[in-house]
Structure formats: structure tokens, C-alpha cells
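User: I'll paste a sequence; please echo it back and then give the predicted structure.

Assistant: Echoing your sequence first, then the prediction.
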Amino acid sequence: MAAGAFLAALAGSAAASAAECPRKEALGTSRVLSVDAKATPRVGLKSFPQTLPLADREVVLTFDDGPNPPTTSKVLAALAQECARATFFLIGLHAAAHPDMVKRIAREGHTIGHHTWSHPFMARIPFEKARAEIDRGIAADEMALNGVSTTTPSTPFFRFPYFEATQAELDLLQSRGIVVFGADLWASDWNEITPAQELKLITERLAAAGKGIILFHDPKARTAAIMPAFLRYLRENGYRLVHVVPGR
């Protein structure tokens, strides 16, 4: 699909602005963007040629590897304080261990995506094992969320661990109508850096990029620690938050 047609197709699926936030001074969520695999099977410039059709100073917040109650709770509290909506890509093993936290993430208005069962390097394992990782992870997330073990995700969003995938794995997800999310920029919070260093790194990268899908990891204590300040940075510097949901 040509770039213009791609943008038009996805922009046309954008929903109306998010619900009003009771705290008028909060960051809030500026709009909701519907994303479906037919128009956008893969997004995120770190991995793919295309990304979401975001305007300048629009950001999508994503969090990987949860849930982890001590830190995920802090991230959720920071998001709630700013009426901010995000997408959480859950590891099935963690979702199975903490179903109440999975339900809380959804109850507070966030999108739940999938991130395999145990976070392997997916490009380094046999295809059938990779398929099992995808299916078992989705089933665990769905069981935690809805009490039903199914490999058909209620939200067909998936992110590969380490952004590693084979073409066969990408084709499998596309055939199942599941959008693969990469990222446009990240906080590098997997490195042993201080919260202050992480905040400086991500704000500088965002200032340079101007917009994009941002990757954090909610199990990281340093990320939980900076989230109030990062959301305040977005608000004070004129950024607008976009919440992604599945297309219907």
C-alpha cells in the first residue's frame, strides 16, 4: 500500500476524542485510534518501514513484560492521575500469576496486548515452538482477563520479545488478523541506569523524534519511578496522548 493510502486508511479508522478528564489540568488522552491488521499489519519504525499516522507531538504509550504488581500498580496510578491511557503487552506467564492485575489494567481503560508466554527469542526457536509461545501467551492473557482460555485474542495486538521475528511468524500473525507492534523510540529501561538517566534519555529522544510509539517496561522500578515526571513532561511540552484500540 502506498504511504498516502496507508495513512488515509488508518486515519479514517480513528475514533472520536477520548472521554473528558475530570482533572482539567491533567494530560488526558487526546484521541482514540483504531488499528486493524488489514490496513496496518505491522507498525513501528524500529522494526518496520511504517508506523501509526501520528501528528507532530502525538505519542502512544506502551509497556511490556508485565504485569508485576509492585511496579505496574505505580505505573497505573501515575497514568490515572493524568487520565492517560496506554497499551500493556503482557507476558502470559505473568498474567496467569496475577489475574487481578490484568483485570485492573483493563478496568482502568488501558488496552491489553500480547507478548508470548515466556519471552523467548522467537527468531531462534523452531516455528512450531514459536506458534505455541504465541498461542499459550494469548490463552493465558485471555483466561486472566475474561476467564476463557482461547487463542483468539479479544485485542489482536502482539509484540515480539526483543523485536525478533521470522517472516513465517510475521505471516502467521497477519493471517490471523493480529497487528504486530514495534516501537518508534524507547527508554532503554532494560539497562542499569538511574531513574534520572532514563528520564533524560527518553525526553531527549522524544524531543528529537517529535512523536511516536514509545516503549517502556512496567516491571522496571526505574520506569515506575519516572512515570509521574514523564507524563508531566508531556503535558508541559505540548504533547498529546493517543490511545490505540483494535479496529472493528
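The radius of gyration is 17 Å. Strands lie at 31-35, 42-43, 58-64, 87-90, 111-114, 157-158, 179-181, 185-186, 212-217, 240-246.
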